Amino acid sequence: MAQTKTNGAVPVYGKDHILAFRLFDERTSKGATKLALQTKHSWKFEAKSDSTETKDGNINSPATASATLEIEAIASLDEVNEMLRGAVMSSKMLEVWDINLADKRSDNKYGAQYARGYLQSWEVPSEIGKLTEIKTTMNVDQLPVEGEATLTEEQQSAIQYAFADTNPATEA
How many structural domains are present in the chain? Predict the structure, then answer.
Protein backbone atom coordinates (compact mmCIF):
# COMPACT_ATOMS: atom_id res chain seq x y z
CA MET A 1 0.00 0.00 0.00
CA ALA A 2 1.48 3.34 -1.05
CA GLN A 3 2.00 6.03 1.55
CA THR A 4 0.02 9.23 0.96
CA LYS A 5 2.08 12.41 1.05
CA THR A 6 0.74 15.86 1.82
CA ASN A 7 3.12 18.77 1.29
CA GLY A 8 6.04 16.32 1.54
CA ALA A 9 4.86 14.89 4.88
CA VAL A 10 4.06 11.19 5.24
CA PRO A 11 1.35 10.40 7.81
CA VAL A 12 2.17 7.97 10.61
CA TYR A 13 -0.20 5.05 11.19
CA GLY A 14 -0.58 3.40 14.60
CA LYS A 15 -0.67 -0.06 12.99
CA ASP A 16 2.96 0.43 11.93
CA HIS A 17 4.18 0.75 15.53
CA ILE A 18 4.80 -2.48 17.41
CA LEU A 19 6.22 -3.04 20.88
CA ALA A 20 8.93 -5.57 21.71
CA PHE A 21 9.94 -6.41 25.29
CA ARG A 22 12.73 -8.10 27.20
CA LEU A 23 13.59 -8.42 30.88
CA PHE A 24 16.58 -6.18 31.52
CA ASP A 25 18.46 -8.92 33.38
CA GLU A 26 18.15 -11.19 30.30
CA ARG A 27 19.69 -8.67 27.87
CA THR A 28 22.85 -10.75 27.37
CA SER A 29 21.03 -14.05 26.77
CA LYS A 30 17.74 -13.32 24.94
CA GLY A 31 16.39 -11.19 22.15
CA ALA A 32 13.34 -8.97 22.48
CA THR A 33 9.92 -10.44 21.70
CA LYS A 34 6.94 -8.74 20.10
CA LEU A 35 3.85 -8.20 22.23
CA ALA A 36 1.15 -10.37 20.63
CA LEU A 37 -2.32 -9.03 19.87
CA GLN A 38 -1.44 -5.45 20.77
CA THR A 39 -4.32 -3.04 20.25
CA LYS A 40 -2.97 0.31 21.43
CA HIS A 41 -0.09 2.04 23.12
CA SER A 42 0.46 5.67 24.09
CA TRP A 43 3.57 7.57 25.11
CA LYS A 44 2.88 10.29 27.66
CA PHE A 45 5.44 12.98 28.45
CA GLU A 46 5.02 15.42 31.32
CA ALA A 47 7.14 18.24 32.67
CA LYS A 48 5.46 19.77 35.70
CA SER A 49 7.16 23.04 36.47
CA ASP A 50 7.20 24.62 39.92
CA SER A 51 5.73 28.05 40.39
CA THR A 52 7.01 30.47 43.03
CA GLU A 53 4.98 33.49 43.99
CA THR A 54 6.87 36.75 44.25
CA LYS A 55 5.71 40.29 44.90
CA ASP A 56 6.19 40.92 41.18
CA GLY A 57 4.16 37.87 40.09
CA ASN A 58 4.73 34.15 39.62
CA ILE A 59 8.07 32.75 38.41
CA ASN A 60 8.05 29.29 36.83
CA SER A 61 11.01 26.95 37.22
CA PRO A 62 11.74 24.53 34.39
CA ALA A 63 11.08 20.88 35.18
CA THR A 64 12.60 17.63 34.00
CA ALA A 65 10.30 15.69 31.70
CA SER A 66 9.12 12.23 32.68
CA ALA A 67 7.70 9.52 30.41
CA THR A 68 5.17 6.73 30.76
CA LEU A 69 3.99 4.14 28.26
CA GLU A 70 0.37 2.99 28.41
CA ILE A 71 -0.26 -0.38 26.76
CA GLU A 72 -3.38 -2.32 25.77
CA ALA A 73 -3.46 -5.80 24.23
CA ILE A 74 -5.74 -8.78 23.98
CA ALA A 75 -4.79 -11.26 26.71
CA SER A 76 -3.22 -14.50 25.53
CA LEU A 77 -1.49 -17.47 27.09
CA ASP A 78 1.93 -16.71 25.65
CA GLU A 79 5.43 -16.17 26.99
CA VAL A 80 5.42 -12.36 26.66
CA ASN A 81 2.14 -11.90 28.54
CA GLU A 82 3.43 -14.12 31.34
CA MET A 83 6.78 -12.31 31.42
CA LEU A 84 5.09 -8.88 31.65
CA ARG A 85 2.71 -10.04 34.37
CA GLY A 86 5.65 -11.51 36.29
CA ALA A 87 7.61 -8.28 35.87
CA VAL A 88 4.83 -6.37 37.67
CA MET A 89 4.58 -8.93 40.47
CA SER A 90 8.36 -9.12 41.02
CA SER A 91 9.28 -5.47 40.24
CA LYS A 92 11.62 -6.47 37.41
CA MET A 93 13.05 -3.89 35.05
CA LEU A 94 11.96 -4.19 31.41
CA GLU A 95 13.37 -2.97 28.14
CA VAL A 96 10.91 -1.87 25.45
CA TRP A 97 11.31 -0.97 21.79
CA ASP A 98 8.63 0.97 19.91
CA ILE A 99 9.46 -0.10 16.36
CA ASN A 100 8.08 1.83 13.39
CA LEU A 101 7.66 -0.70 10.55
CA ALA A 102 7.03 2.14 8.08
CA ASP A 103 10.52 3.53 8.83
CA LYS A 104 12.70 0.87 7.20
CA ARG A 105 16.29 2.17 7.21
CA SER A 106 18.29 -0.77 5.81
CA ASP A 107 18.22 -4.57 5.80
CA ASN A 108 16.24 -5.62 8.87
CA LYS A 109 16.72 -2.17 10.52
CA TYR A 110 13.79 0.06 11.45
CA GLY A 111 13.44 3.40 13.19
CA ALA A 112 12.61 2.85 16.85
CA GLN A 113 12.49 4.28 20.34
CA TYR A 114 14.15 2.41 23.18
CA ALA A 115 13.30 2.77 26.85
CA ARG A 116 13.53 0.85 30.10
CA GLY A 117 11.60 0.98 33.30
CA TYR A 118 9.00 -0.79 35.42
CA LEU A 119 5.37 -1.73 34.86
CA GLN A 120 3.32 -0.06 37.58
CA SER A 121 0.06 -1.92 37.05
CA TRP A 122 -1.52 -5.01 35.49
CA GLU A 123 -5.23 -4.80 34.82
CA VAL A 124 -7.18 -7.62 33.16
CA PRO A 125 -10.90 -6.80 33.00
CA SER A 126 -13.16 -9.63 31.79
CA GLU A 127 -16.50 -8.80 30.14
CA ILE A 128 -19.17 -11.18 28.91
CA GLY A 129 -19.04 -11.56 25.15
CA LYS A 130 -15.73 -9.69 24.72
CA LEU A 131 -12.11 -10.63 24.42
CA THR A 132 -10.12 -10.14 27.62
CA GLU A 133 -7.88 -7.08 27.31
CA ILE A 134 -4.73 -6.32 29.28
CA LYS A 135 -4.09 -2.74 30.39
CA THR A 136 -0.79 -1.70 31.91
CA THR A 137 1.41 1.36 32.34
CA MET A 138 5.19 1.47 32.31
CA ASN A 139 7.11 4.15 34.20
CA VAL A 140 10.12 4.92 32.03
CA ASP A 141 13.55 5.68 33.49
CA GLN A 142 14.79 8.96 32.01
CA LEU A 143 13.37 9.45 28.47
CA PRO A 144 13.13 7.14 25.42
CA VAL A 145 16.12 7.19 23.05
CA GLU A 146 15.78 7.31 19.25
CA GLY A 147 17.69 4.77 17.18
CA GLU A 148 17.36 1.69 15.00
CA ALA A 149 16.06 -1.74 15.97
CA THR A 150 16.98 -4.94 14.17
CA LEU A 151 14.23 -7.41 13.35
CA THR A 152 15.28 -10.94 12.46
CA GLU A 153 13.51 -12.83 9.67
CA GLU A 154 11.68 -14.81 12.37
CA GLN A 155 10.50 -11.62 14.11
CA GLN A 156 9.38 -10.14 10.80
CA SER A 157 7.38 -13.26 9.93
CA ALA A 158 5.68 -13.11 13.35
CA ILE A 159 4.53 -9.59 12.54
CA GLN A 160 2.92 -10.35 9.22
CA TYR A 161 2.77 -13.41 7.04
CA ALA A 162 4.20 -13.15 3.52
CA PHE A 163 2.22 -13.39 0.31
CA ALA A 164 1.62 -16.99 -0.78
CA ASP A 165 1.12 -17.99 -4.38
CA THR A 166 -1.74 -20.18 -5.60
CA ASN A 167 0.67 -22.96 -6.58
CA PRO A 168 1.45 -25.76 -4.11
CA ALA A 169 3.86 -24.59 -1.41
CA THR A 170 7.43 -25.95 -1.55
CA GLU A 171 7.77 -25.98 2.24
CA ALA A 172 5.42 -26.46 5.18
Answer: 1
